[in-house]
Structures
1.
Amino acid sequence: MTADPTRRDFLYIATGSVAGVGAAVALWPFIDQMNPTSAVLALASIEIDLTPIQVGQAVTFKFRGHPLFVRRRTPKEIASAAAVTVTELPDPLARNENLPEDAPATSSNRQIKPEWLVVSGVCTHLGCTPTAFEGEYGGWFCHCHGSQYDNAGRIRKGPAPQNLAVPVYSFLSDTRIKVG
Amino acid sequence: MSGPSTYVPQTGFTRWLDQRLPLLRFSHDTILTFPTPRNLNFWYAFGAILTFFLGVQIVTGIVLAMHYVPNADLAFDSVENIMRDVNYGWLLRYMHSNGASMFFLAVYVHMFRGLYYGSYKAPREVLWILGVLIYLLMVVTAFMGYVLPWGQMSFWAATVITNLFSSLDQVIPHLGSVIATWLWGDFAVGDATLNRFFSLHYLLPFVIAAVVGLHIWALHVPGNNNPLGIDVKGPQDSLAFHPYYTAKDAFYVGIFTIIFAGLVFFAPDLVGNPDNYIPANPLVTPPDIVPEWYLLPFYAMLRSIPQKLIGVIVLVGSLLTLAFIPWLDSSRVRSNRFRPLMKQFFWILVADCILLGYLGSQGADALWHVGGTDVPLVWLARLGTAYYFAFFWLIMPIVGLIETPRPLPDSIAKSVLGAAPAE
């Protein structure tokens, strides 16, 4: 090796770099093929007819491969959820895709109409589906690892870090919603 | 420990081959004449037992793959087809599912044996770490295999375990979700997930076999450790691997095969979960989801932590800790036979792992009734988890410094043969 880089050194480094970058680029298709396909990405939204759902009832629908909870809350439940102050909550954010990301997790920020709660049925701990009307807070209890949610889908106790997510949805009429 | 080769080709052909590819010489030196400590006991047969069960899993797995369909709509039915219609399909599938249990039973005995006799200590650190790597590969392979029948436990085990990655969202926002989506090939566990798990479940056993090759290579450089934990000092301390240990290993493989046959023929679903005979349903999580028995202690540790990210760190840490053992043990003596204090902590660790296994099998909110009060089992799991980590990170370094080991024997031969060693 001489102290000064020669033309040959330059050629070696340039050749090596081309090979390295080429190998890295060639790797990408093998990684990216694991991601969701175009068919999976072309997801439809769903419409839900709310008329059959009685007061106090919680119904599970399938939305984008996951369970979706629609719950018609009783006045007593609405009042108990509203009585909770945000400072008592493990997760102070609303996690409502219809609101700004930093919206606080007040009961009213968790739904569009107080009677109707629409939340993802995926426990934010490890993805199990919690069971309705169980646990100390009357909302949902996740049997996998013991996370407990209140009737506004907010995490109250257990290992789950976040409130159940509220997906983008809107009321098409008083008795019909469109999710997604 | 392997000295100069003693292989002498006997025929013209073997002489010709020996100069071109010394395969017979290699086999002769590593299988037939390999010098092995003469005092190896029952607990040293598990290497051979594990090799045997790796073979069972690969052979039964290859034929099951001829009938299995990795498609979310067809997988469950194809497994039922194997069970009911394929000739001897029930036998092959039960051999494969119970073979996994036998494989893990053997690997746990093998690991605790290495821990008890100090087989991880210099110069066998790389041997030990390769063993830890094999164990991790076994866990991943077994997990993916458990998903393939596409029953309720399959589906929800896949959901829970892949969601472990989503805890990374708490480190860098969205990182974990991006990884989980990448693993699933969808926004939930589904057909794409099943397909890739099948592909990897077929690949990984061959990776395991390759690492087993390295593991045995690393074993053959320093040679076997032994129950006394002292080095082989000469030919009087060792025996040729064949016929002494081939015969001994074959005997215990036979014993293990009898237990295996007992499981397969008389209790094939003993360790299986009945919920896995219900087809996967993405909308209903079974009331109690539990992993297979061999992962229960780790599951108990994960569940005992009330914070998601820390729970995952504890789970991963409990496995990675094993790789550091060679440097955590400060004792100069290998075998626990001569370590009166460490021996007691060792058996507490064994009991702790069994306790954690039991706790992992219980419901998330189970209680323990003592006297008039109810103790949540999660507190026991926290104690068990604390002991597991304390054993490796505190007890191992400290006990080695404060303990007075019992005197070591002069040599393996003297210890085995008494006062008058045969020369």
2.
Amino acid sequence: MLSRNAQGLYWIGRYLERAQHGCRLLIDQLETLKDRSVEEIELSWRRLYGALGRVPLGGQLGSNLGDDWFMLADAYTLADDLTFEADNPDAVRSCLGTARENARQVRNTINKDLWTCLNLLFLGMRELSIEDIWQDRPAEFYQSTENAIRTFAGVADSTMYRDESWHFLQLGRFVERTQLLADLIDAQLATFPAGEQPTESDWLSLLRICGARVAYGRLFSLQVRPSLVVGFLVTDPLFSRSIRFGLGVISDALGVFSAGRPLTLEAGRRAGRLVARIDCEWPNHDLEDEDTTRALLQQVGQSSRLLHDDIRVAYFDYEIEDVPQS
Amino acid sequence: MNQKTSDRESGASGRRSGERSGLFADYRTGPLHYDEMFGSENAPREHCRALWAALKDMPREEIAQMQKRAERSFLHEGITFSVYGEGSAHERIIPIDIIPRLVSAEDWHFLERGLRQRIKALNQFLSDIYGACQVLADGVIPVDVVRGCPQYRTEMRGVEVPLGAYVSVCGTDIVRTHAGFMVLEDNLRVPSGVSYMLANRQAVKTSLRDIFRRHRVRGIEHYGALLRQTLAELAPPAVSDPTIVLLTPGVYNSAFYEHMFLAHEMGVELVQGSDLLVHNGFVHMRTTEGLRRVDVIYRRVDDDFIDPLVFRPDSQLGTSGLFHAYQLGNVAIANAPGTGVADDKSVYAYVPDIIRYFLNEEPMLANVETHLCRHPEGLEYTLDNLDRLVVKVVGGAGGHGMLVGPHATPAERAAYAEEIRRDPANYISQPTLDLSCAPCLSDGGAAPRHVDLRPFVLHGRETRLVPGAFCRVALTPGSLVVNSSQGGGGKDLWVLPS
């Protein structure tokens, strides 16, 4: 398929995943605001911003410690920053706008149902502001936005022909997911280090963000142990929001259409190496040793960023070395 | 020459004639304009009777609802066009009016034959002026009218055009007055609007499905297939399964929706200039599997922007070397570069003579009477009758630089006359036309609005067209401007079976 179209689909996948991740983080954060102490709330924001690699507007968090009212006002500003701030390219609305703009450019490669799904999502959000959603159950807004993104994924799954267009959409989605997960888990370990007595609810909230509570509970009883949680989110091959699962999808997709050109093979190899590292290296390290865990996680995050570059130069922006004979 | 329209208004017998109720209660036709639905004594025309009967008693709220639903579906599906320089409101829908315009089988038959005749003659004309130039030698049309036209491309002299099909896609603007159908303008470069023809059909078919079914309206949905077939026929002879692409200037072009839509309908790639590259005289596109050869380009960018090496060097939209590949016959470009000379407003005046010269037939579709200011008698006539005429700039488009005499002040006319005297060859004049009207929804009821129609004619090995057209309507009361960028809307056009 046309490189520009493949690139468009890839970015639709990435931006929708990013928007969905933003919604999930904020849903959890709103839950935290309900019954946690001001200090806990502040830590939770710290994790959230750390996971996104963003500095909140104003530069710092928690300047109003001890004052509940200010804390809530702060939440309003921060949620606005992550949802509607036009200057934040990773804000939920910006992501949806970019996804939709990409879709507009490659509309002839996606079907009408998919387009309509995304277009309606964007149109419904275009005129909104934080005031509109904050008064009346903001969590519902994030929930319905996430549902709409899931609907898009569902429509894609049930309608798309499994050619390259499907695989590039998947690639974008899972490259993004892998990076976001690595960053989120790393931020969790940075914010809630093991030396301190872990608060169960902080780790439950991580599981909630990843939608992993039920699966985790089934495997490891209901007791929440940080090392088990991290291990599960990194290595479980069957859980769709684990790093290992994402890398599996990426590896498969690259395997389907690596055309035998050197650069495309390179991308596939890198994905393969990452899979091997998680399958073979991860289980051997001391799960309680957080420094090693974090170092490994950062390598995984770094590698999946390089994976993005590999994909770009292999399929979208390649040099014209050899032109086929006419 | 003027065709006899099917003016068989249904019997003006007492009770029915003039009966207006419901939707049409406030509908008033005037003597000046031909009305597409109502004939003499305000009785519906024979072929419109069933539609009239179905609509007249329908509750106004119900029709208004249908109208809203149709517009909403356009917005949701992104059936929009871009308006340049409008800040935030970049994407707009072309308003649709859901009351269809009906065309009788006889009228369509006449139009179709006229259109076939016209495209055939225009293609032979283009072939001649870029080849033997017999039409110029025989004095049918003055040399300077052709060569002086900015759309005349010397680069096209002697280029072998596949099948002689310079114009493969033509959108002809046709209006109707009491005198019959007339061609207002031929669009032979990159005519647009066909996607709205299809989108309007889809929307109206959904809204008025029972009425639609009863009318046994002739289908237009195969347009994409016909276009693809036409383009495939242009491919270099050695290629058996040609790769066709649609070349768009990109997402910021006002007709981008249409480009996307047509690429989708035909199942071909939608490419931008940057997706293509020329190597060893062949055109390729950049795909995820490497480069792939391209055989036919349906281009929706203007001549100027096709190839910066040959045409405008500052163009970012085109592909270097494309024209060279075309000259070598390694790729087909539709429409061919240089077709604009045949829809130039001065050349337009000669189309009836062109038809007579090349086909040895009388033209079926009338031209609008046109006075060329380059001729002394045309200049004199124009200046003497400025208050009754529409004056147009020869190379202009979209109504730019136009003077509508009856609507202008004496001072404006005097200033314009000065301009004309300074460069007469740049102007033509035409009488102000009384465009026909058709009922449109307005404040819940129906009101007459001016309409035209643009059928699309395809020309490859043979000439093809679907029985339909993009019907444009001036939604502002009294306005004659149907242009989409100036408040114009669209209607579905139903061609009835014989």
